[in-house]
Write a structure and sequence with these properties.
6-stranded mixed sheet, 27 strands
Length: 482
């Protein structure tokens, strides 16, 4: 149990109604999950307004309400705390409730359109291989001390984050690597956390359905760095034209990385093959099983963070050379009878372009590239024609299909994509709405030696259709037909 008055430390408060000297047992922003002696956070979302659920939360056991305006009906038994921003208050109070766990470890957040999952996962593996107690909060899962928990969001809500960080501290975890999404930053899910470091990988067209325009999306990412303390570090990829922009107002110690320009951390790609890459860092040559220049940047990110956190260079490079690729990220399935298949999460124009450029760079030119790709429903419509355009330009055949259509008509999504294909490339296009049938078709039209890219879903083991998730794993479907 925690004292409400102490939980409000550092929260920007406009007014208080009631006595804050009460004991709190639980926190929730969902009235359906309220328990006895809870704080209810009345958040105004895009669909639901938490103010409308205050009475319900009180009936279920809420004894304190955090909101940004005075409710019409006041219950004199309840404490009402009127704040500037409920989401920020949720982050700060969650951190206080769990004894500020982020301040007791080295928490490093990685943000960017692409590369977050690969970088955080590789860092987690690398530090674990160095016998260091380390946690991971990623799109795929939350991991620490050989415990694995599934996640629903790239960046979980503030209560979940702090709850897991507290558990990590209780079990002796010293480091944690965390994916930080633009949604998570915008919705203040990282509010109240003390980051030891922040990393920027890159930024490109994505999530504009949420952020409305690229400037908002970019500025949201930048705000993560703006809020770092002087004791933190900020590492950025200056091969991205917005890399230095991220550091403009940060108080943290600044570092840069690049494979093209002079930077604090540099890496050279010596060989690039389907079996991996030969890389050079500080005159040390080493091999990695990961493929593609975009992965060279991910590896450089891992090396740079490990150097900043004072791991020994040669040991880091040796252990990186033994690490396998992350599931669903340029994951290769070598069929004995037919084509080489690559499964990749690429669901943004730049990510798809990076993967296809890598394939084109390595290929012999005696084989065909067949790309199976779709776009998610109820998401950024503007990127649909761009993805189809990139796929058609860089492939010999393209099968347009469903990704996660959600509540949209998949046929309409494909038509939106088709608008980006130039007339000269129409002959490359095949439309197959059902994703399993599309993968089956790619096997049917491929020849031994061809390269088939299955793009968009990567590690996901479901497909969302009409608001319902059904089991669907690209890798398992590939095994079935190839």
């Amino acid at each position: 149990m925690k004292n409400l008055k102490k939980l409000l430390y550092r929260v920007s408060i406009n007014s208080i109604y009631g006595n804050t000297n009460i004991s709190i047992e639980n926190l929730s922003y969902d009235s359906r999950e309220i328990k006895k002696n809870s704080i209810f956070f009345a958040i105004k979302g895009k669909i639901y307004n938490g103010l409308n659920y205050i009475n319900e939360s009180i009936k279920k056991g809420a004894i304190a309400i955090i909101c940004d305006s005075i409710p019409i009906k006041i219950d004199k038994r309840i404490v009402y705390v009127i704040v500037e921003n409920v989401e920020i208050a949720l982050g700060i109070i969650s951190s206080n409730f769990y004894d500020n766990p982020s301040s007791k470890m080295k928490l490093v957040g990685i943000t960017g359109t692409n590369g977050k999952t690969t970088s955080t996962t590789l860092l987690h593996k690398l530090f674990k291989d160095h016998n260091l107690s380390v946690g991971l909060i990623s799109t795929i899962s939350i991991n620490y001390n050989n415990k694995v928990f599934k996640t629903n969001h790239t960046t979980p809500d503030s209560i979940t984050i702090n709850s897991f960080l507290k558990s990590m501290i209780d079990e002796g975890v010293s480091y944690c690597f965390m994916e930080v999404s633009s949604h998570g930053i915008s919705q203040n899910r990282t509010s109240g956390l003390e980051f030891y470091g922040a990393v920027f990988t890159n930024i490109s067209h994505d999530h504009l359905d949420y952020h409305k325009n690229f400037k908002n999306y970019r500025d949201t990412k930048k705000s993560f760095f703006d809020n770092l303390s002087r004791d933190a570090f900020a590492l950025t990829n200056i091969d991205d034209k917005n890399g230095l922009f991220m550091l403009q107002n940060t108080k943290a110690k600044k570092y840069t990385l690049s494979i093209k320009k002079h930077a604090d951390f540099n890496l050279k790609v010596s060989e690039n093959l389907f079996s991996g890459m030969l890389l050079i860092f500080e005159n040390n040559e080493f091999w990695t099983k990961l493929v593609g220049r975009f992965n060279a940047l991910n590896i450089l990110t891992v090396i740079a963070v490990s150097k900043i956190l004072e791991l020994e260079t040669v040991s880091v490079l040796k252990k990186i050379s033994k690490i396998n690729n992350v599931n669903g990220r340029f994951q290769i399935y070598n069929s004995k009878k037919s084509a080489k298949v690559i499964i990749d999460y690429a669901h943004t124009p730049i990510a798809l372009e990076n993967v296809l450029n890598t394939i084109n760079e390595i290929r012999t030119k005696n084989e065909n590239i067949i790309t199976v790709v779709g776009c998610g429903g109820n998401r950024d419509i503007e990127k649909r024609p761009i993805i189809a355009k990139k796929a058609a330009l860089l492939s010999d055949k393209v099968i347009l299909t469903s990704d996660n259509p959600r509540n949209e008509n998949p046929k309409k999504i494909i038509e939106d994509m088709l608008r980006g294909v130039s007339p000269i490339d129409y002959k490359k296009i095949i439309k197959v709405i059902d994703r399993e049938e599309a993968i089956m078709a790619s096997e049917r039209i491929s020849q031994p030696g061809d390269i088939v890219l299955i793009a968009g879903k990567g590690h996901e083991n479901y497909q969302e259709i009409n608001g319902k998730k059904k089991p669907f794993d690209d890798y398992e479907i590939v095994k079935k037909y190839f």
